[in-house]
Specification:
This protein is an alpha/beta fold. It contains 15 helices and 26 strands. The longest helix is centred in the middle third of the chain and has 15 residues. The chain is globular, with a radius of gyration of 22 Å. The two termini are about 30 Å apart.
Length: about 475
């Protein structure tokens, strides 16, 4: 049995694909089907030829006529595109080839032009050996392990027949960059942007493709790091959530006496800010920054935040007269909730930022622009704004390998019965001066701990106590 996501198991009668014209039967590793995407090392886990069947059954699942496909700069992306497009075309659907773009631009294209679905060929922040597929349906609504990806895997595992359509689809190239740039800029007032000096680290990822046409329209002095597209990531991994990957950016901020810095991940759908002192701004505090800007323009709006975020986020939203809604972690869960509540914005600690007027999809570029406008309007340094918004102390995510996640969560639950508890996503326990969340990984026997406290001393004490229980 292969578990795709909690609550979904898929039987595995035969790990093969069959019934192409050549009747070539291809092995597929079911473990590349994750909770929110398809991802693995190429070619041992994710074989490029597997993309043929994925494309075919995706098109059939969506009953699609037109599917947009974008790709990142990884060495295997072109080969995966060829296979994926062939499968989509053999189903009878057309492929709109968006070329090299960011994931958020793919979402924009699907929403803006009314395509039946979209696929971004990327492994996001993972090392060069990886590649994968991020998949959405009409209106940029994501597919996940429990909604779409699992069904596609079943079709492949059960060796369902691939019958080529007599009306084979076509491939049409479409350049959306200029349209996407104008869409992103529509979220801000360009006349308010101040001439900041900013260092931007594209990480040799897709930000190097989508940012230049934006930057030429902004009145800023930009120092560019690693804008050349290079899927081998020769400078550092394109994963700015890890502090060790910000060293080059921090050095450049200091050397250039820049006002602040920005780092994007490999497919450029996430971004992190770094202040003039070299300190990373956590994704949840960036959520508070974006919320502050949007609520000033749209009073009384609703903002979603996942339960790993600092309580500084809902406190800010409530102070500004908005409504805050706490959610589980994960874009496939947040996007439908945003639509249900017509939320203007949603944010996650991981650096994903979702916008109602962007088909409820996430965009690192839009988040950067909104923060740039806020800093311009406030006319205060980033570090001052952060200090005002976030008076708390956070542990960050601490992972521990355990034999049984449910057993450990129950042990911690029993040890903290005096706190306010909920199980929205794992276990969250609230006290007056601190709170923590404990969640299991979707894919590994890992337990993830996040703690926030009013003082650094209290934080250290509670982290030590919790880890003693978890790791005993």
């Amino acid at each position: 049995m292969t578990t795709i996501q909690k609550g979904l198991t898929i039987s595995k009668p035969s790990p093969i694909i069959g019934n192409r014209e050549s009747d070539k039967r291809l092995e597929i590793n079911a473990n590349i089907f994750k909770a929110y995407d398809i991802r693995g090392t190429v070619p041992d886990q994710f074989k490029p030829e597997n993309a043929y069947a994925i494309g075919y059954f995706l098109s059939r699942f969506l009953s699609a006529s037109n599917i947009a496909v974008g790709r990142d700069m990884r060495a295997s992306s072109d080969e995966i595109f060829d296979q994926l497009a062939a499968g989509i075309n053999d189903s009878g659907a057309n492929v709109i080839d968006l070329g090299l773009i960011s994931t958020d631009a793919l979402y924009y294209a699907v929403g803006k032009f009314g395509y039946d679905g979209g696929v971004m060929i990327t492994a996001s922040h993972n090392p060069k050996e990886y590649n994968g597929l991020k998949v959405c349906r009409k209106n940029a609504e994501p597919l996940s392990g429990i909604d779409g990806l699992g069904e596609i895997l079943k079709s492949i595992q059960q060796n369902e027949t691939i019958s080529k359509s007599p009306s084979r689809g076509t491939i049409t190239r479409k350049d959306i960059i200029d349209d996407y740039v104008q869409h992103c800029l529509s979220f801000i007032d360009l006349s308010k942007i101040k001439p900041f000096k900013i260092v931007i680290d594209a990480g040799n990822g897709m930000a190097g493709q989508t940012l230049p046409p934006v930057l030429k329209l902004l009145p800023i002095d930009c120092i560019r790091l690693f804008f050349d597209l290079d899927g081998t990531f020769p400078n550092h991994p394109a994963s700015p959530i890890e502090l060790e990957n910000l060293v080059d950016l921090q050095k450049a901020i200091s050397e250039n006496k820049a006002d602040f810095g920005v780092a994007f991940d490999g497919d450029a759908d996430r971004m992190f800010l770094v202040d003039k002192n070299g300190r990373q701004v956590r994704g949840d505090i960036c959520t508070a920054l974006v919320a502050k800007s949007l609520l000033a323009k749209h009073p009384g709006s609703t903002v979603l935040y996942n339960l790993i975020c600092s309580k500084a986020v809902p406190e800010l939203v409530e102070r500004m007269g908005g409504t805050s809604i706490r959610t589980k972690v994960g874009h496939a869960l947040i996007k439908p909730l945003m639509k249900k509540h017509n939320a203007i914005f949603g944010g996650e600690h991981s650096g994903h930022f979702y916008f109602r007027d962007n088909w409820f999809a996430d965009s690192g570029l839009i988040a950067f622009l909104v923060c740039l406008e806020l800093l311009s309007v406030e006319n205060r340094p980033l570090d001052e704004l952060i200090k005002e918004l976030n008076p708390y102390f956070q542990s960050g995510e601490i992972n521990s390998r355990v034999e049984s996640v449910p057993t450990k969560i129950n042990q911690v639950k029993q040890a903290f019965l005096e706190g306010g508890q909920d199980d929205l996503d794992g276990l969250t326990v609230n006290f007056k001066d601190f709170w923590f969340n404990l969640r299991g990984s979707n894919t590994e026997p890992l337990i993830r701990l996040n703690v926030e406290a009013d003082t650094e001393k209290l934080l250290d004490e509670k982290v030590a106590l919790l880890l003693k229980i978890i790791r005993s």
